[in-house]
Amino acid sequence: MSALRTASVIFCTFLLFSCGHSLPELPGFAAETWRRDPYACKNERAGQLKALLQHRELLYGTRADDIDALFGRPDEEELSEQTEKIYLYYLEPGLQCDPGHQRSAANKLILRFGPLGTVTEVLYERPPKGL
C-alpha cells in the first residue's frame, strides 16, 4: 500500500509541474535587448514590438518563471483577489523613468496569469503605434 501511495504522490507532483509549457521561442524577438531596457527608458523595447505582436499567441500557457526568464522581472506586478497576477512591462518612456519609478500612462504590455500560474491573456494598454 505504501508503494501505491508513493506512486500517487509522484504522479500528482508530475501533473502539477507539467501544467503550462516551457520557454517559448519568439522568432525575431531579442530578449536580451528587452531585458536591458527596464521601464523602457532607453526606448529599445519599441524595436521588439513587431516580433512580439506577430508571435504573442506563443506566450499563452507559458509559466511565470519562463516569462521572467524571457522578459526579465516585470516593471510592475499586480495581484488580484482570485489568485491571479498581472505583469506589466512598459513599452515606451514616460514618468516611470523618473526617480522612484512612479506609475505612468505610458503604453504597457500586460500579461495576465490564471490560478495555475500560466499566461491567459496578452494585452496592450493601447494598440502599439505604427504596427
TrEMBL record:
| Taxonomic classification | Bacteria, Pseudomonadati, Bacteroidota, Cytophagia, Cytophagales
Highest rank taxon of the organism: Bacteria
Q: What is this protein called?
A: Lipoprotein
